[in-house]
Each structure stands twice: as C-alpha cells, then as structure tokens.
Amino acid sequence: MINPKYTVESLNQLGANNMGSHIGMEFTEIGEDFLCAKMPVDHRTTQPFGLLHGGASCVLAETLGSVGSLCYVDEEKYSVVGVEINANHLRSAKSGFVYGKATLLHGGKKLHVWDIKITNEEGKLICISRLTVAVLPKGA
Amino acid sequence: MINPKYTVESLNQLGANNMGSHIGMEFTEIGEDFLCAKMPVDHRTTQPFGLLHGGASCVLAETLGSVGSLCYVDEEKYSVVGVEINANHLRSAKSGFVYGKATLLHGGKKLHVWDIKITNEEGKLICISRLTVAVLPKGA
Amino acid sequence: MINPKYTVESLNQLGANNMGSHIGMEFTEIGEDFLCAKMPVDHRTTQPFGLLHGGASCVLAETLGSVGSLCYVDEEKYSVVGVEINANHLRSAKSGFVYGKATLLHGGKKLHVWDIKITNEEGKLICISRLTVAVLPKGA
Amino acid sequence: MINPKYTVESLNQLGANNMGSHIGMEFTEIGEDFLCAKMPVDHRTTQPFGLLHGGASCVLAETLGSVGSLCYVDEEKYSVVGVEINANHLRSAKSGFVYGKATLLHGGKKLHVWDIKITNEEGKLICISRLTVAVLPKGA
Asked: Model-level pTM?
C-alpha cells in the first residue's frame, strides 16, 4: 500500500526544482495502488509541429510509475530505479492538459510493474505505457 | 538517405520554441542514416534525486528518431508520427551532457524503426531505445 | 466490431496446421472487442527448468492480437501484420493451462493496439503484453 | 564472460525435451559475449498464412538472452529470469531457417540486457529484440 505520509502536496514539493516542474507537471491524486498527475500541452511539452511530444508522455509515465514505487517501499531501506519503459502513442494532443494515471500491476519484492494511461481533455486515451522499476536495497 | 537540405543548424531552428530547446537539447551531427544530439543533465532533465530522468532519455530518443524520419521522407507528401517507443535505462548520469545517436534499422515505406543509443561523458551506454515511426500520406 | 463470421471453431480450424496447434493453443471465446485462448504448460511450452517459456507467452499474446485484428478488418481489402510486441513476465507457471485475453485498446485505420493479459489457473496475472498491428491495403 | 563449460552441445542437450527442441531451435555458436541459434520456418513456427510467427521470433530471442544470462552467472548461487521482452518484426520469412544472435549490452549484478537480432537466409534483419533478465540469488 502506498505510504500514507505521501500526499499530493509533498510529492509536488519533492519535484519542485527539476524536470517535472520545469515542464509543468503536477500530481493531482494518490490512492492505494495508483497515482495521478496532469501535464500542460504547450511549448514546454510539444514538438516542432505543436503537438504533444511523445517523449513528454514518457516523462509523465516514468514520473508516475517511479514516484509511485517510491511511495510503496520503505525508503530508509530501499531505493527504486526505472529499468524499462515502453509506450504506444495513440492520439495527438494540441492544447490544454493531459492526464496520467499509474496503476500498480505487480508489486514484487524486487520489481514493480506499472500500467500508465494518459488521456486528453475528452477522456480519450492518447498514450499507454508500462514501466518496470527495480527495488534495490540501499548500501548494497 | 537523409534529405541533404537538413543541417544541424536548420534542425536546431526547427525546435527552437518547444520541448527540445526547453530542456536544452541540441542537434550535433547528421549523416546518411544517423542523427545525433546532446542534452544537458541539470534541473531541466533530472528527477528529484538529481539523476537524469529516464523520461528525459525518452525525449532525446524520440526526438532523434522522429526528426530522423522527417529528414528521410518527402515532406510535401508525407508526415511522420512516433508510434511506439521503448527504452532500457542502464546507468545513471548526474552532470555534464549525455549524447544520443539514432541509427535507422529499417526504412520501409510505411514504417521506420530506429535504434537509439545514449552515452555519458565517458562514452558508456546509459540508455538504449527503439522507436517505431509511421509514415503517413498527407491528406489521407 | 469483430466480424461475426468468426467463431471459436473457425479460428481453431484456421490454425490447425501451424505453430498455434503445434504448441497446443486453443481459442476459447470471442467477443465484440476481445479474443481469448488457452495454452498448456507442458514440454511444448516450457523452458529447460520446467517453467512456462516467456516466449510461449509471446506466442499466445501475438496470436491473440493479430488474429483479433484479422477479425476486425475487411479481409478482402486488408491484411494485418504484427509490428511490435512487448511483454512483462510477472509470475512463473509450471503446469495446467494459462489463459490469454486480448482487448483492443485502439482500433485505428492503419494501426491496432492490443492489450493482452495472461493468467494462471488461479486467475493471477503471469504476463502482460501489448501488440501493435499494422493494417495494410492488399495489393499496395 | 560466458562460462567456458558451456558448449553448443551442452546447451542443445539442456533444451532437448522442451519448447526449444519442440519447435526445432538449435544453438549454433557461443562466444565471449554472444550466443547464436537457428530456427526452422515450417509448420512448427509459422502462423496460418505460412509466414514465420512473430511469437516464434520472440521464443528464439528470449531463449538466446536467458540462456546467455545463465551462461554468465555462477549457477550455484544465482538463477536468472526473463523480466521484459520487446521485439519489432521487420520482414517476413516463409521457408528455410532464420538465425538469431544475442549480444550482451549490459551485464550488471542484478540485471542483464541483451540485444537480439534475427536474420533470414540472405542475412537481412527480420526482427530486432531486447530482453531484460533479472539475476536472483538462490534461496532468497
């Protein structure tokens, strides 16, 4: 279960000075086995033709899954690291926000696997991604 | 073969007001079947613990492959769109730059597949990615 | 919608003399946007240590998605071809059957994307896969 | 380095009664950081239209990478398990053999990543795959 000490506010603080905030990402909801964030579609996240950059979707997906894993482990003992990500880009997005939700598919002792779905303002699926996270004992 | 009208300069101009430049990416070399760019490891591209964000590697990989495909097709007739990306994160990076090189593995009429390797300042592989790009007739 | 002319029986006939039947796979259910099959865990599908071969899960996933796509298109006009597959192996299986269900995530004109989940006898997820299928006009 | 006790003969013996031999796969060469096998394109490995089944390519890729990892670790202490596989199918194959070569991209203590390329009789690339293998202490 996600560590109850984590809140949307504390997670947004954690990422206040790096890529997440630099591209406008914000956590919006956290639950027992899921984590949500939104991301703007603007000059910070688009490719040269004004569409959402596929890589931006990956940043959202990888952030959600790896921060999700961080919330699941005992951080005094373990660190987490993204091992593999894959994503299918299904639709384009031109403006507004996109919304990502990561759901834990498999929470093993050594590996977590997350399903991440990203939808547009109309709720249509624009990207589906899967992230594999390794859970590593600290100091090992 | 990559359209000779494209140069490192024109590609950097193309991306001057969007995600690529926002996170500091720069094209550095273009060849017959490859394209290279570098990306800084700083607050624009790191995760909360100061390491290169895996999603940043995906932005670099997806940029290289999809811009590479753009350079291969007759743009009056075709547009290109990233369909699927996958990436393994092999090592972390903390500072300096990382260097991406995309090489065309398969240049079909409808699909391109790119291999993208990202290395650190010491030339060690930190990420390997593969991007599938669809080539679509304009107006279809 | 899946072409109603396809039935579990006709699909099992279609694959009667090739890899699917050779490894014991059988279609079990077909619906509006899904397709199911089962596969035995025995010498036909295991690796040297007696566990289900990860590649066997890929055969099941790729069969379900590509046959699913076949059922969706007008076969007089289109053929379908698997473009990219990915899979996470989550649990091992030693005996009995495993059960695969493919659900269409995205049914575009040129590309289909399928989510395929494989479960064991207890209903636990052992593999999750995603397949990208290209829909190609015949004779093009 | 691959354990010198492994030979093409011993590896073919290891897989004599399971999926590998059932579909006709044979190891052909083993080297310091690579492993090769061939696979027939016939009723054991084709889909209903007589082409090589994409899943068969995955079986070849996953076999090569996971057996490769097995040859790298001290088997008294560690076991290896395929975690994630992905593959792009680039060309079809109708007859003869296809040839797979797995090359170790990353040989970490806990994770191995393999690049697997499959070519046809003319040496053309028909499939490219990447396999992530977890190295697990026995008894843990």
From this structure: 0.97
